[in-house]
Amino acid sequence: MSSKSTDKAVQVDIDPHLKEQNEGIFNAFANEEHTVLTTPEIEQHVDLGGRQVRRRLDKLEDEGIVGSRKPGRTKLWWLRAEVEEPVSAKYPIVRLVQNNLSLQFVALSLLVGAVSVIFMSVATVLMAYNLSLPSVLFLPSIPTSSVIQSGLLSSLLAAGFLIAGGSIAATNWILDYIGIEVNYSPDSD
Fold first, then answer.
1. How does pLDDT run across 55-99, given as a tens digit for each residue?
2. Model pTM score
3. Distance CA 109, CA 29 (A)
4. I need a surface site. Which of 9, 24, 109, 147 has the fewest CB within 10 A?
5. Dihedral of alpha carbons 146, 124, 160, 109, sign
6. Which keywords annotate this record (predicted)?
7. Residue ranges of the domains in the chain?
8. Are 40 and 32 in contact (CB under 8 A)?
């Protein structure tokens, strides 16, 4: 056995995107009873072709996260680094939003809507107390009308994102209903 196989798990800071992208591979190591897996065993846990899985494992090996050895025809893989669960494993709602384009638009509309509420609240307070933004924040002169316009613009943008998310969800539902399957995968290689 090579020296690689005796490596102990080391805590390594791993790029969060790399963790998310290879979540299935890390779940394969977490879900199997043994710590050394073959490539076909890992492929069972991942929704990718064999070539893509091998390419990702090779990249993880280059990063020092997994180790490998090929004693015969099948390559063996093991984790060399301690890998924390990806965020989407800890919070399933994150995975749901990541894999659903319409929910991404709805989440974006909620964020822009929150900005809109802030703009409109600031404008309301400024108008109610007859203040101007520079006197409150010590900034150059920004008229209250500009703050109102920014709030209205962000409201329209939020409504647009919400309509886009609803339209995408309705289109997906219609296509599913008539039997056309559409898959959105932001990670596709």
1. 988 988 888 888 888 888 888 888 887 666 556 666 777 777 877
2. 0.51
3. 37
4. 9
5. positive
6. Membrane, Transmembrane, Transmembrane helix
7. 7-86, 100-177
8. no
